[in-house]
């Protein structure tokens, strides 16, 4: 039986800055890349929707295809299978002697459980795990995971004071000695969306997947369109593609290493000088690292209803409310535009995410974990630590010092979309409404409705809850929960 080394790809769909691949290629044994479409990732959740929706699945498919091309170019095959990873490893071990497995570290409990099952099937194989998802490996930070500061600003201050660790070198192996696969053991086709139990996309994906596309986006945003220069001013925009970097789908799926982004920021600074925007983009990458560290510190507590603080806030269950939120039919234009954008494209800006998550928890009072699960299903940039971490904070069960912070979704629409262009884009039934009606259609009387040819309650829903009343009630529930937990 021929011996081989496996590089197991998961949320690291790239060949650059990939230490496991680099290590594997220096071992002298034939290398086999492996990606498994884990059937557990495509199951239907108890909430009635798939754990991975079609937009994210398509992004992953394209990224795996791109990875295969890049790996093939270096000389190694990428085996693609659909099933459970432990079964896939067993089937490989029946054909080849798997001497070593190289992979990047994941910190989610689901991933660790799967890893454990694979190891059980291969008791004589050595597993080498490297850290690779963040700017700075945890062991290079000036504190242990247990000592991680409980707020982001403390975390940033410690880094500013102690100096950030140096970045490790970014490299790609020049070639990889690939394993030759026998005819009856082919590389394998990628499963279609249908085979993954999903519907086809109605239109081409908004963000094409893959490391090659990630590099195009990086160069476009920073250099060609020169948008890094104005990032600080535009990053809260909700409509235009270049308002923010849109690096997140590529970072979340590992098509792009955050170190490469930082390297390009530094290159830009050397050429054109530092400014507040160049710092701000770096600052956002630090947020990403921070949520990963919070996850590492608190482990499964990031999924608990009472979150990191153990604050027993009552979470309500209302299927009708949940459905209207998911479908963008709440009667609040900012929430509806953003939720329809998410459902139709798998993306939503950070400003919009904060608003819809706040509305979900602070107006509707629904269980934040269901909102987070819907994001997990839909977002092309889903990342377990960033998603559940951000939800925890918005729900008020993170380490945040402010217990009840709610976004006024109407005021936010006025402030961040003053002419209503974003709302009009996603809500065709409101497209004739000028500002300020577009921000508050509920305020329109019969005359205005007639003037603009809209019938509220029929063409567009009336608000499902009173904005101020619901917020007031919810605040009381939060305060009560806080008193009870003292
Ligand atoms: C409720 C909620 C859920 C979220 N879920 C996710 C998620 O699953 N995956 C994800 O990558 N981001 C998530 N975010 C963070 C943020 O909304 C997205 O990273 C951002 O909108 C992506 O767009 P961009 O790449 O243009 O961001 P930019 O503004 O250009 O930021 C650059 C990069 O910094 C990182 N970043 C920026 N803001 C944050 C943040 N608040 N937390 C963590 N990283 C950040 C991202 O990697 C992003 O690509 C969530 C935010 C909220 C409020």
What does this structure look like?
- With 486 residues, this protein is of the alpha/beta class.
- It folds into three domains: 3-132, HUPs (Rossmann fold, 3-Layer(aba) Sandwich); 211-299, Serine Threonine Protein Phosphatase 5, Tetratricopeptide repeat (Alpha Horseshoe), CATH 1.25.40.80; 319-485, Orthogonal Bundle (DNA Cyclobutane Dipyrimidine Photolyase, subunit A, domain 3).
- It contains 19 helices and five strands.
- The chain has helices spanning 19-25, 54-74, 85-93, 109-121, 152-162, 211-224, 231-234, 248-252, 258-272, 276-298, 319-327, 333-345, 350-363, 368-378, 384-395, 409-416, 421-426, 446-451, 467-485; strands at residues 3-9, 31-38, 78-83, 97-104, 126-130.
- A five-stranded parallel sheet has the order 3-2-1-4-5, sandwiched between helices.
- α9 runs antiparallel to α10 (276-298) and α10 packs across α15.
- The longest helix has 23 residues, at 276-298.
- The protein is globular.
- The N and C termini lie far apart (64 Å).
- The model has no long low-confidence stretch (mean pLDDT 96).
- Bound molecules: flavin-adenine dinucleotide.
Task: Provide the fold topology.
Blueprint: E1 3-9, H1 19-25, E2 31-38, H2 54-74, E3 78-83, H3 85-93, E4 97-104, H4 109-121, E5 126-130, H5 152-162, H6 211-224, H7 231-234, H8 248-252, H9 258-272, H10 276-298, H11 319-327, H12 333-345, H13 350-363, H14 368-378, H15 384-395, H16 409-416, H17 421-426, H18 446-451, H19 467-485
Parallel strand pairs: 1-2, 1-4, 2-3, 4-5
Helix pairs in contact: 3-4, 6-9, 9-10, 10-15, 12-13, 13-15, 14-15
This protein binds flavin-adenine dinucleotide (FAD).
Flavin-adenine dinucleotide is lined by residues 235, 244-248, 251-252, 281, 284-285, 287-288, 291, 349-350, 353-354, 357, 375, 379, 381-383, 386-387, 390-391, 394.
């Amino acid at each position: 039986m021929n011996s081989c080394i496996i590089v197991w790809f998961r949320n690291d769909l790239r060949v650059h800055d990939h230490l496991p691949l680099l290590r594997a290629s220096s071992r002298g044994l034939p290398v086999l890349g492996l990606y498994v479409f884990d059937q557990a990732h495509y199951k239907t959740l108890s909430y009635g929707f798939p754990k991975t929706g079609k937009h994210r699945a398509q992004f992953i498919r394209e990224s795996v295809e791109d990875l295969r091309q890049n790996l093939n170019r270096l000389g190694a095959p990428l085996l693609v299978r659909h099933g459970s990873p432990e079964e896939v490893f067993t089937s490989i071990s029946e054909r080849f002697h798997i001497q070593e497995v190289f992979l990047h570290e994941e910190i989610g409990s689901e991933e660790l459980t799967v890893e454990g099952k694979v190891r059980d099937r291969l008791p004589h194989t050595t597993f080498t795990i490297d850290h690779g998802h963040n700017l700075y490996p945890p062991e290079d930070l000036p504190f242990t995971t247990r000592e991680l500061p409980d707020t982001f600003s403390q975390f940033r201050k410690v880094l500013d004071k102690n100096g950030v660790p140096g970045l490790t070198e970014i490299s790609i192996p020049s070639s990889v000695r690939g394993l030759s696969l026998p005819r009856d053991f082919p590389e394998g086709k990628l499963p279609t969306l249908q085979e993954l139990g999903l519907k086809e996309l109605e239109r081409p994906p908004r963000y094409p997947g893959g490391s090659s596309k990630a590099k195009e986006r990086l160069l476009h945003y920073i250099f060609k369109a020169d948008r890094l220069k104005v990032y600080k001013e535009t990053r809260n925009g909700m409509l235009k593609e270049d308002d923010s970097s849109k690096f997140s789908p590529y970072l979340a799926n590992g098509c792009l290493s955050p170190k490469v982004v930082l390297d390009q920021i530094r290159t830009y600074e050397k050429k054109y000088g530092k400014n507040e925007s160049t710092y701000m983009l770096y600052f956002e990458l630090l947020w990403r690292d921070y949520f990963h560290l919070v996850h590492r510190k608190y482990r499964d507590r990031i999924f608990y209803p009472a979150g990191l603080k153990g604050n027993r806030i009552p979470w309500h269950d209302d299927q009708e409310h949940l459905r209207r939120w998911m479908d963008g039919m709440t009667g609040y234009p900012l929430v509806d535009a953003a939720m329809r954008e998410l459902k139709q494209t798998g993306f939503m800006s950070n400003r919009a995410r904060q608003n819809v998550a706040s509305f979900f928890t602070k107006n509707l009072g629904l269980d934040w974990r269901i909102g987070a699960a819907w994001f997990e299903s839909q977002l092309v940039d889903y990342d377990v630590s960033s998603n559940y971490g951000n939800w925890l904070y918005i729900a008020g069960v993170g380490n945040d010092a402010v217990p009840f912070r709610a976004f006024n979704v109407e005021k936010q629409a006025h402030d961040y979309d003053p002419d209503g262009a974003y709302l009009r884009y996603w809500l065709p039934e409101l497209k004739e409404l000028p500002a300020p009606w577009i921000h508050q259609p509920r305020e329109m009387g019969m005359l205005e409705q007639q003037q603009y040819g809209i019938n509220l309650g029929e063409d567009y829903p009336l608000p499902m809850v009173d904005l101020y009343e619901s917020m007031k009630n919810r605040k009381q529930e939060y305060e009560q929960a806080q008193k009870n937990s003292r």
